[in-house]
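anyone seen this seq b4? input:
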Amino acid sequence: MSPAVITLCFLAFAVVMFVTEKIPLGLTAMIVCIGLVVTKVLDMKTAFSGFIDGNVILFVAMFIVGGALFETGMANEIGGIVTKFASSERMLIVAIMTIVGLMSGVLSNTGTAAILIPVVIGIAAKSGFKRSRLLMPLVFAAAMGGNLSLIGAPGNMIAQSTLNNAGLPIFGFFEYAIVGGPILIAGILFYATLGFYLLPNHDPKSEGVFDTSKDFSLVPQWKKTLSLVILILTLLGMIFEKQIGISLSIVGCIGAVLLILTGVISENDALKSIDLKTIFLFGGTLSLAAALDKTGAGKLIAETVIGALGDNPSPTVFTFVVFILCCVMTNFMSNTATTALMAPICLSIAQGMNADPRAVLMACVIGGSCAYATPIGMPANTMVVGAGDYTFMDYVKSGLPLIIIATIISMILLPIAFPFFPAA
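predicted toks r here
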């Protein structure tokens, strides 16, 4: 078999195992990773490079930063303050999604989620509401918020670059919000109403580092204060990432190291705070994403689906197919890789139709951000798997309706905001 076919077989295996969970998610990811090496689809360095990916390093660092917030009891204190202003679970969900969505519009959605996950778990502990019902709306809002501005997500910049390189009019800084804003608002309203009943309702199997029932009365106040100060400084470092020239993952590492050096959290507690299930799941599945890209299997899927539309497809049908295809692919590849793969294909076909490609590229970007239906769709999804005790099907049940909502809104707004034939 060709490497592309072998990769598609491993993709099918991963989907079946993730859905059925006959074996743990992390183990499935490692089987795929090792299998791609054994079958010589990837060399060992490429297959295991996911474990030193910037997002994995960020995960490790922020688990320690979050662990310190819990070990000192500061997460509980923050949670107690926030819950005074939210009288119900629905109000908390709306507040969390609004704050995270707006922050993600100008920050990395992964960084935003990483900073706020321990805070939200503290809110859950103090309010008495289950963290599994608050964490999933948090990561979904982080993804939706990325579509509010040009810098909200890497895929936005890729589409911008594609237009720029072709000498075509580019998107304005907040032009993504024409579609992204209504999707965020609709998403918040959905989880405050009908979607509220679809959110997972799990009791944590093991508190681990997120044990919020400890007696924190003996913890020195300086430790509590310093854990919060370092968290805030880490957030500021992420906000001004470009200005200081230090990546998100390294900023997180600096915060984690400072917490250990100052004695806010011990080395043993720092190591215990790292969720290895998340690391194995994300690091392992990055090998599958690399194989889809390297072997051309991802491109084969895209060209086969779009090619079935014929030589002169309807612009509306073409845009819809692109959107759905990006939605599917981004749940198993990164949204950056999905957009990078699809953008040039979309541009070429749109130009062949003599249509303005901006609607199709916008569909590509928005669809590529709809990584709500799997725990591996985006880094933020993976970060909360352990904390929320989520299963693969939890993401499908809660995230699939959001993809449908995003599809409907996009198909209504795209032709209006970005006409296919503006001169006509």
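The mean pLDDT is 86. DSSP finds 22 helices and no strands in the chain. kinda curious what u guys think
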